[in-house]
Design a protein that fits this description.
With 287 residues, the protein is of the alpha/beta class. It contains ten helices and eleven strands. It has a seven-stranded mixed beta sheet with strand order 1-11-10-4-9-8-7, with helices on both faces. Strands 3-2-5-6 form a four-stranded antiparallel beta sheet, covered by helices on one side. Helix 3 packs across helix 4, helix 4 crosses helix 5 and helix 5 packs parallel to helix 6.
Length: 287
């Protein structure tokens, strides 16, 4: 069983206790599971406007499930998920669609439309969600590509892009409609150090430029700690710690320390299961 959540203070006020009206996203004692397998057990967190917040933890701890709950793809079995003050689970199809129009999503590995050019990929959400004339769509697409340094790649197809370039195009597409909320699912996976630094810096810069809130699901401690305002650590379906990057990095909690410093053994054991190795080899009595 996970230990109680350790709420580290940021200045004099923890983000965990942010005023609800300042939060774009609020999860309040949210539980979720697949069939009989519990994934989240009483998760509470807040994503304030203008902040970049990392949600971190080991594989399978429920990080991507949190993004799916925020986007309304799935509904919590208990508790409440609110976006911009509205209960996501209570929204009808039309209202949910309207809410998603104000969200940007950057998928792991980018998830570009392979049969569309870079330009057409970025134009897609503008055509889907607005009735803007093509002349204005063109200006907006070029503006977004300029913001990520790829205006000169507008005619290229995704197959011609490097991994880092594809990720930048995906980011330009995600911000095409100037969202109030950005969701990032493992944005640094598979990137070389230069591309990783570029994507990390763009996430921070674009969030500040848009005045948006960003939820960053990632395993990358160093890249995320450099750009985020606050960190939630998830384990066994619960928040076990939250605080600023420096507070999390300096935590004395064994499980948090093991995760942040990438230690191979600790509360999360290197050896799976129990039993004496010598006994399994027939060199001693079995337990």
């Amino acid at each position: 069983m996970a230990p109680p959540a350790m709420h580290l203070q940021s200045g004099s006020v923890s983000l965990e206790h942010s005023v609800a009206s300042e939060s774009i996203v609020t999860l309040d004692q949210v539980a979720f599971g697949y069939d009989s397998r519990a994934v989240l057990s009483g998760i509470s967190l807040h994503i304030p406007r203008g902040k970049v917040v990392a949600v971190m933890g080991g594989s399978g701890c429920g990080k991507t499930t949190i993004l799916r709950l925020i986007g309304g793809q799935i509904k919590a079995s208990a508790g409440q998920v609110s976006v911009n003050g509205r209960d996501v689970a209570a929204l009808g199809h039309g209202d949910l669609y309207q809410m998603r129009r104000r969200m940007g999503m950057m998928f792991q590995f980018g998830a570009l439309f392979t049969d569309l050019s870079v330009y057409e990929n970025v134009a897609f959400p503008l055509r889907e969600h607005t009735r803007l004339p093509e002349s204005l769509i063109r200006d907006l697409v070029l503006m977004k590509l300029q913001a990520v340094g790829l205006r000169g790649a507008s005619a290229l197809m995704p197959a011609s892009l490097s991994g880092g370039m594809a990720r930048r195009v995906a980011l330009a597409r995600a911000i095409a409609i100037d969202p109030m909320l950005m969701l990032y699912d493992e944005p640094f996976t598979g990137l070389d150090p230069i591309s990783l630094r570029i994507i990390a810096d763009l996430i921070r810069e674009l969030n500040d430029a848009l005045g948006a809130a960003s939820v960053l699901v990632t395993h990358d401690v160093e890249a995320s700690f450099r750009i985020v305002d606050h960190v939630y650590i998830i384990a066994a379906g619960r928040v076990i710690a939250d605080g600023t990057p420096d507070q999390i990095r300096n935590s004395t909690d064994p499980q948090v320390h093991q995760f942040v410093h990438g230690e191979s053994d600790g509360p999360v054991r290197f050896h799976y299961g129990e039993g004496a190795y010598a006994a399994d080899l027939g060199l001693g009595p079995r337990p």
